[in-house]
Amino acid sequence: MAVGQRVLSGERYLPALDRAADAVEQLERDRRALHARALRAALDLHTAQCANGMALATIAQLALSLDCSELRAGQLLTQAQVLGQLPGAFGALQAGLLGVEQSAVLVQLTLVLSEHHRSLLWDRLLQRLRQQGLPSPARLRELLARWVRTIDPDGAAARRQATEADGDVHLRARQDGLSDLFATGLSPTNAAACRHRIDQASAPWGGQDDRTAGKRRLDAFVDLLLGRDRLPYDNASHAGAGSFGMRIAGTEPLSRDVRRRV
């Protein structure tokens, strides 16, 4: 084993590495067990609040006790309620079979399911956890999304149609003064076609083009949206003289990418 230019001697370093790795693993097991206890405590608090007719105060009380936002407190209570309905979920978390981040992913992706379908999915996941171990949160998200579509195909189709109907283009200002522009609710076919069109338009212009591949794609994306990918008067598309006059007037300044071509 080498670190930089040094070769680590197993006799000197491996025992220390093993101890450190064991300590990290134990801390993670403790964190999962503590999270299970926190979820159970949140449920106990909610039960007490309900008994006194103050169910709506649970989130505020949790936020006060945890010194956190009500958003996070609400997420914790939701996670406790959902996992509390799944047989063995708290036990899996307590034993380290289920991770803290993975449990959040499980709840997030199964909230759209009925209790019956959620129970079916949990049984399938619990069997996989026992046989193959715990996947990463990203891998679990992909896995559960696929299972949700399989277990509840009609519901998945209806949710997809609703999401497509609510598709939009969003503009978000960033703290560094730049902005992000992104679209939501694209079909896989249209998304792939858009990316392919951008890739086609983002080829470097000679050896002097020092932009990164990402910057070339960004410039191509802007040029395509603003119509800067064609000449002011294009005989091939029979553009009118009016269009030519508007472009010449300078109402649409050329990007750096187009200026290099010209």
Question: Which terms summarize this structure?
Answer:
262 residues; mainly alpha; two-stranded antiparallel ribbon; 65% helix; disordered N terminus; disordered C terminus
Task: Give a structural overview.
By secondary structure, the protein is mostly helical. The protein has twelve helices and four strands, in the order ββααααααααββαααα. The strands form two sheets. It has a two-stranded antiparallel sheet. Strands 3-4 form a two-stranded antiparallel ribbon. Strand 1 (2-3) and strand 2 (6-7) form a beta hairpin. Helix 2 packs across helix 3, helix 3 packs across helix 5 and helix 7 (137-151) crosses helix 8. The chain is extended. Mean pLDDT is 85; it is low at 1-5 and 238-262.
Tally the helices: what do you get?
12
Instruction: Kindly report the average pLDDT value.
Output: 85
The portion of residues assigned to helices is 55-70%
Order of helices and strands: EEHHHHHHHHEEHHHH
> Class by helix and strand content?
mainly alpha
Main sheet overview: 2 strands, antiparallel
| Strand composition percent | 5-15%
Instruction: Note the overall shape.
Output: extended
Tell me which oligomeric state these chains represent. single chain
Rg (C-alpha, Å)? 27 Å
**Poorly predicted ranges (pLDDT <50, ≥5 residues)?**
1-5, 238-262
How many DSSP E strands? 4
Distance between the termini: 54 Å
The neighbouring-strand order within the major sheet is 1-2
Reconstruct the topology from this structure.
Blueprint: E1 2-3, E2 6-7, H1 10-51, H2 58-66, H3 70-84, H4 89-94, H5 100-110, H6 115-132, H7 137-151, H8 153-165, E3 168-173, E4 179-184, H9 188-201, H10 213-226, H11 241-248, H12 256-261
Antiparallel strand pairs: 1-2, 3-4
Helix pairs in contact: 1-3, 2-3, 3-5, 5-7, 6-7, 7-8
